[in-house]
């Protein structure tokens, strides 16, 4: 039979420890006389309460307060170090991998992109040299550039042409450049630019 | 006669202001209770000693957050229970055993009965197999003699939830006996 009197079962620990009023103690006693389930609960509780706790080794109680405060002092003296979170290593590796993938594709300097169709028209109509044509389209004074570059620059890079409809012409004019640093070349272009 | 609660409050105030000897007195006042509680949970003297020390160190670290809404004893019990729970969680993680699904009846003791368990202290072996929260409630309620309200404060749950855990725990223990008798 299951006892429905939860209240009695809840205060059995107090009954066991003789912490109840005489009236309540009597009430519990009467209930236990007729309820097997609560009697069994009480036996379990008494059994659990019986067990003694083994003493720690000698000297533990005397030394514990001092050990606690010395641990606290150690904590106080330790400098607050910047701790690297556990995920930081993985994050750094991921960033490095991303950079390794991106950097080889990123061109240094300005990309000059010309639509393939327009490139074809220009070369057909004016017969311009490729380099001149590129710079002309970009709004530079080609004649001035020619004069300046003649002595110092050799443009020998192959030009890649994507002549699919609407394709992009992507010249690698800076790849074959020698005897002049990229910075000097860019400076020169800046000086000749109609916008400067 | 000196009011013990007042004396404790004064020690707490001094400890908060950095008085180590005041805190040492607080440790002396509560160390046996906390050790006994941790022994009943861990059933191991070494673990209980280590956890007792770490409980008092952690209690000092967060002393600034202790506002005195509960007693200092309840505050210590709460830290001790959390420390024990963290320890067993770490150990169980290493063993990859599901705490909630462990059987209450030991395979090695199929004919366990109540009297035998009382004699040999095997009842505690069954308690050890309870889920941690149910074990905590039993220990706090039966061995430490705390009220359900105090138990709930320590476990960070409602009084109703503490009562439910308690009833489940007692029911499981009784079920284990019934199972062993058949």
* Low-confidence runs of at least 5 consecutive residues of chain B: 101-112
- Secondary structure category of chain B: mainly alpha
- Tally of strands of chain A: 3
Strand content of chain B: under 5%
Low-confidence stretches of chain A: 109-114, 149-180
Number of helices of chain B: 9
Can you summarize the main beta sheet of chain B?
Answer: none
Report on the biggest sheet of chain A: 3 strands, antiparallel
What integer value in Å does the Rg of chain A equal? Answer: 45 Å
Principal-axis shape of chain B equals globular
Helical content of chain A (DSSP H or I, runs of 4+): 55-70%
Q: Please count the beta strands of chain B (DSSP E, at least 2 residues each).
A: 0
In brief:
The complex is a heterodimer of chains A (196) and B (182). Chain A has 196 residues and is mostly helical.
What does this entry look like structurally?
The complex is a heterodimer of chains A (196) and B (182). Chain A is mostly helical and 196 residues long. Chain A has ten helices and three strands. In chain A, strands 1-3-2 form a three-stranded antiparallel sheet. In chain A, helix 3 packs across helix 4 and helix 8 (130-137) packs across helix 9 (142-152). The radius of gyration of chain A is 45 Å and the shape is elongated. With 182 residues, chain B is mostly helical. Helix content of chain B is 74%, strand content 0%. Chain B contains nine helices and no strands. Chain B has helices spanning 4-16, 20-42, 45-61, 72-95, 114-120, 122-128, 132-143, 148-155, 159-181. Chain B starts with a helix and ends with a helix.
């Amino acid at each position: 039979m299951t006892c429905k009197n939860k209240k009695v079962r809840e205060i059995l620990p107090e009954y066991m420890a003789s912490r109840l009023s005489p009236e309540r103690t009597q009430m519990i006693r009467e209930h236990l006389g007729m309820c097997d389930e609560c009697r069994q609960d009480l036996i379990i509780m008494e059994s659990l309460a019986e067990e003694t706790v083994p003493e720690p080794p000698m000297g533990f109680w005397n030394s514990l307060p001092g050990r606690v405060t010395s641990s606290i002092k150690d904590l106080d003296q330790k400098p607050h170090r910047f701790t690297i979170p556990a995920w930081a290593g993985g994050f750094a590796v991921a960033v490095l991998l991303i950079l390794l993938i991106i950097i080889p594709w990123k061109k240094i300097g300005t990309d000059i992109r010309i639509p393939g169709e327009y490139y074809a028209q220009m070369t057909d109509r004016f017969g311009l040299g490729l380099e001149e044509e590129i710079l002309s389209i970009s709004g530079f004074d080609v004649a001035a550039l020619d004069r300046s570059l003649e002595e110092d620059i050799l443009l020998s890079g192959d030009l890649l042409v994507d002549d699919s409809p609407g394709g992009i012409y992507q010249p690698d004019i800076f790849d074959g450049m020698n005897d002049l640093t990229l910075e000097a070349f860019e400076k020169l272009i800046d000086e000749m630019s109609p916008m400067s | 006669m000196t009011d013990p609660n007042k004396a404790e409050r004064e020690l707490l105030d001094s400890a908060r202001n950095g008085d180590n000897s005041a805190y040492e007195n607080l440790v002396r006042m509560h160390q046996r209770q906390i050790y006994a509680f941790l022994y009943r949970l861990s059933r191991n003297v070494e673990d209980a000693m280590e956890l007792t020390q770490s409980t008092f160190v952690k209690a000092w670290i967060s002393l600034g957050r202790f506002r005195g809404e509960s007693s200092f004893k309840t505050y210590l019990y709460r830290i001790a229970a959390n420390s024990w729970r963290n320890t067993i969680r770490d150990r169980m993680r290493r063993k990859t055993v599901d705490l909630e699904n462990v059987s209450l009846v030991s395979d090695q003791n199929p004919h366990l009965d109540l009297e035998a368990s009382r004699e040999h202290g095997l009842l505690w072996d069954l308690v050890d197999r309870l889920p941690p929260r149910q074990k905590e409630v039993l220990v706090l309620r039966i061995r430490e003699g705390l009220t359900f309200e105090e138990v709930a404060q320590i476990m960070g749950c409602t009084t109703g939830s503490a009562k439910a855990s308690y009833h489940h725990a007692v029911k499981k223990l009784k079920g284990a006996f019934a199972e062993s008798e058949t």
